[in-house]
From TrEMBL:
GO terms for molecular function: transmembrane transporter activity. The keyword Endoplasmic reticulum does not apply. Solcar repeats lie at residues 1-83, 97-191, 199-286. The chain crosses the membrane at residues 61-86, 98-120. Belongs to the mitochondrial carrier (TC 2.A.29) family. The lineage of its organism: Eukaryota, Metazoa, Chordata, Craniata, Vertebrata. Keywords: Membrane, Mitochondrion, Mitochondrion inner membrane, Repeat, Transmembrane, Transmembrane helix, Transport. It is a multi-pass membrane protein. It holds the Pfam family Mito_carr. One of its GO terms (cellular component) is mitochondrial inner membrane. It is found in: Mitochondrion inner membrane. This is Solute carrier family 25 member 45.
Length: 288
């Protein structure tokens, strides 16, 4: 099994993560808290209250976990294509796989990454939702002191299964949308590249950026539900499942709830995924 794809997936994921984390914090807050009037209000309040560091809350764990998560996504994707089409990454420009195969491989990568992503994503969301400024003498300490304390507290208070809260919604979000993600990337690359050649850097950037936007646009409704289910344990709010969370969110806030965070998610998705695909492609070309 070729391992370069796993390593390239890890490095490219880390680059994308650092670039996109501040946008991600604003998105998570808009999706799970009702105190903000919009993106601008959330950015201003976060900055005033928590300084620039507020936007980077919860980033250390994803940085550590991206090694596993993104390498599983890209590694499983590429190796599933290898199993389906018997072509390696190098041969795929000359013998492009069908879009059905690309979709299937993307869905498999998305499905497999959920197992690694679920606990890390839960901890990220809980830490991002802590709006207290950094500890000052006399001010109440935040609920979680950091990622490890957060993981231990969840295990103690909600049981080890608590770490997988929202995992069903995450699986429903990621399995089809990662199929869409890779199909969009492949389609846009092929449209802008003469047959048999490798896509230029500009093509990769644009195709990666739009693949990110489209897949996140489709993923946003389930992303909202996933984030709410992840926060539910903390707020002692009990949802009976994904459908119950959907129904109760719509009842209280209307259908617009499914589109919370869509604008900021799209603004984040373009640069993040452009950088992910560019670094992934170049690392693989560089290694031969
Ligand atoms: C719609 N979904 C779930 C995705 N496109 N997932 C791929 C993740 C790529 C990158 N880490 C990001 O956060 O955008």
């Amino acid at each position: 099994m070729p391992v370069e794809e796993f390593v390239a997936g890890w490095i490219s994921g880390a680059l994308g993560l650092v670039l996109g984390h501040p946008f991600d914090t604003v998105k998570v807050r808009l999706q799970t808290q009702t105190t903000y009037r919009g993106i601008f209000d959330c950015v201003v309040k976060t900055y005033r209250h928590e300084s620039l560091l507020g936007f980077f809350k919860g980033m250390s764990f994803p940085i550590a976990s991206i090694a596993v998560v993104n390498s599983v996504l890209f590694g499983v994707y590429s190796n599933t294509l290898l199993a389906l089409t018997a072509t390696s990454h190098r041969e795929r420009r000359a013998q492009p796989p069908s879009y059905a195969h690309v979709f299937l491989a993307g869905c498999t990568g998305g499905f497999m990454q959920v197992y690694c992503l679920a606990p890390f994503d839960l901890i990220k969301v809980r830490l991002q939702n802590q709006t207290e400024p950094r500890a000052r003498p006399g001010s109440p300490p935040p609920r979680y002191r950091g990622p490890v304390h957060c993981a231990v507290s969840i295990c103690q208070e909600e049981g080890p299964r608590g770490l997988f809260r929202g995992a069903w919604a995450l699986m429903l979000r990621d399995t089809p949308t990662l199929g869409i993600y890779f199909v969009t990337y492949e389609w846009l690359c092929r449209q802008s590249t003469p047959e048999g050649q490798s896509p230029s850097s500009a093509s990769v950037l644009v195709a990666g950026g739009f693949a990110g936007i489209l897949s996140w646009a489709v993923a946003t409704p389930l992303d909202v539900i996933k984030s709410r289910m992840q926060m539910a344990g903390l707020k002692h709010r009990v949802y009976r499942g994904v459908l119950d969370c959907m129904a109760s969110s719509v009842r209280q806030e209307g259908l617009g709830v499914f589109f919370r965070g869509l604008t900021i998610n799209s603004a984040r998705a373009f640069p993040v995924n452009a950088v992910i695909f560019l670094s992934y492609e170049y690392l693989l070309r560089w290694w031969g």
